[in-house]
Amino acid sequence: MTEALTRVGEIRTQIATLQDVAAGRTTATAGTATATSAATQQNATQFASALAAATGTDLTNLTAQLPGTPAPGVTTTQPLGGVVGAATTTGTGTATSAPASTDAGAAKGQQIVETAKEYLGTPYVWGGESLAEGGLDCSGLVHLTYSRHGIDLPRVARDQMREGTTIGSLAEARAGDLIIQRGGKHVGIYLGDGQMIHSPRPGKTVEIASITDDRVTTIRRILD
């Protein structure tokens, strides 16, 4: 037992020396680095064997190693000296995180919605596409709103329903998407939360209304 513990102490001293050398080195050739790694692994194995002999504990599955010399199948670094530090890294050894992303289309869609709300209370006028005409029809509201943001859409609902990309359901829709109803005879702008803004029919004004999937012909996303 005494001899084993003495051997453990010697090995620990050797490994500490190797760590100091590795920490102070600023440049190294590939051959030197490989030799250092092999020597470190050999000493680590000897350390584990000696400690097993001294304590009677099977340490076959425990790999003690210097930082930067992982054993096969080991993905965390376990520094010698009894303190284990774990860190998940990329193949280059540098920790990474998912880059923050912004959705310009969603932000623009919200701007579209805010513009459309400026026309709440505007009378329905068939064929109307500007306030100079006294009011707006459904596609006129869409056309005018988008044009104020530099987006030129077709004038009538049946053509607007062919623009952009198809969205499968209201659950996937976002503010600014076009809501097409009655087979292409009516259009509004989605606000979110199951609501759209539209100019419904003669005698009505631009308003916000609740909608459900069963009342939607298609949903079109203009802003990617």
TrEMBL record:
UniProt cross-references to SUPFAM superfamilies, sorted A to Z: Cysteine proteinases
Keyword Amino-acid biosynthesis: no
Region (Disordered): 64-88
Keywords (A to Z) from UniProt: Hydrolase, Protease, Thiol protease
InterPro entries, per the entry: NLP_P60_dom, Papain-like_cys_pep_sf, Peptidase_C40
Pfam families: NLPC_P60
Ranges of residues in domain NlpC/P60: 106-224
Record bears the keyword Protease: yes
Family (UniProt): Belongs to the peptidase C40 family.
PANTHER family assigned: MUREIN DD-ENDOPEPTIDASE MEPH-RELATED
Identification of the protein by name: C40 family peptidase
Native species: Isoptericola luteus
Lineage, opening ranks: Bacteria, Bacillati, Actinomycetota, Actinomycetes, Micrococcales
